[in-house]
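Retro notes
What went well: the complex prediction finally ran end to end.
Inputs used:
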Amino acid sequence: MQARRVAITGIGLISPWGGDLGDFFERLLAGESGVRHLLTDDLPRPLSTPFVSCQGFEPEVELGKPLAMMMERFAQLGTAAAFQAWAHAGLPRQPEAADAAERDTWGCIWGTALGGLSAHERGSREMWQKGRERLSPLSVVQGMNNAVNAHISIQLGLGGVSSSHTAACASSGIAIGEAFRRVRSGDADVMLTGGSDVCQSYGVVRAWEAMRVMAPGDAQTAPSACRPFSADRAGLVLGEGGAALVLEAWDHAVARGATIHGEIVGFGASCDRSHLVRPSSAGQVRALRAALADGGLEPSDIGYVNAHGTATAEGDPVEIAALREVFGDGASRLPVSATKSMHGHLLGASGAIEAVVTALALREQAVPPTAHLAGRIDPACEGVDHILQGRRRVPLQAALSNSFAFGGSNAVLALRAPPR
Amino acid sequence: MNSAELIRNFLTERLGVVPHQIQPGALLADLGVDSLMLAELMFEAEDRFGIEIPSDLSPPRTVADMQSAIDALTPLKTG
């Protein structure tokens, strides 16, 4: 079958600021950080770390109490984002009886790194700290890593493939890429995709701290704790969230009069095949070139790169080296930003939130900055056009979103601006 | 809380059942209690009343069945 164009017809996001998509993107353009200081009352020692929380998120309001109570928080965030994207696409939750068969082949491919881990952590805590002898049977379905795609497929009547990808920080980049391929190939006219993660589990934060890659910060300094590409960067800042896209065959979208918010044109995936946690620019270069080739793009077509840029000492210069190799002489004019400086690192959901940012940049013709970078660029990270302040009225045709994971899994998405 | 209250709260909060539908003869299946939610309801009863519902118990069919199953095992009714 001939390759089909893939439209983005719905975008959904649980914003750390609690507002809608427009509010979220405006805050990013303004360089506003969503990072705050998280202080818990955990035993034996509270968590005290910069973090990005979706504090205003009310699962029972978004999902209704019965559904919300069936889910762990990562599934609540993901399903709520999916419902928003679905409504944004103008699709009814349950189709009219005559249209239900159309959804037999529609599917959901989700991304999450930690999945329902917090359900099991809570269960263990209840038993080992509080002496309880029983666990709720629901913790099985709350804790399963495919809970989000399962709930979404049930709630939206999607009868095709329903699965989740786990590839650490590239989970949802890969999920979106695989969903994109299913629409392009003709396997499905519509795919719901995205990612969600909840990273404030006690054991998860403690483990990341032990790896010495977490940025320090208190109530005063937390907002600027995540400083990708900066000479004084001090590590990553974790966050929670969920973001979703409705991908739809172009002609299907046009036929039903849907608004097209953007287009996915290419997906490149690779593995560094070298080291569990030390990234390799060679592997990233292969993913970047694969995404460009898959999308029929030249490096000169790209007007923005949403970098993986986590603000770790080791990762940032490797990513810049990869971009310099792929973009050659044009690299110095290539606008690049790492929006994790503002929305944090959502692990398995980072590819999804950053795909949303990239799609909005193309739609709005505006690019968000790397916050806290002005005057601080690490010489080892020079060689691209670092966006230090949000830019509006930028003529953008195409952009890339990078997700580079522990384990060496790389995913690059290539997007185009919607028709104007 | 007694067993009737526990069942009523569970059905309304967890399954969105309208209170007037909760009659002793009402079939649990009709109220949306599938095998998963029946296991969860039994867990709540065990947890709340400190009882152990035997794993070979035939699954209660009605609201009244569920209530008797709990009451038969409840050693000390707590308020």
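What we learned: The domain at 265-416 of chain A is CATH 3.40.47.10 (Peroxisomal Thiolase; Chain A, domain 1).
What to try next: split runs per interface for comparison.
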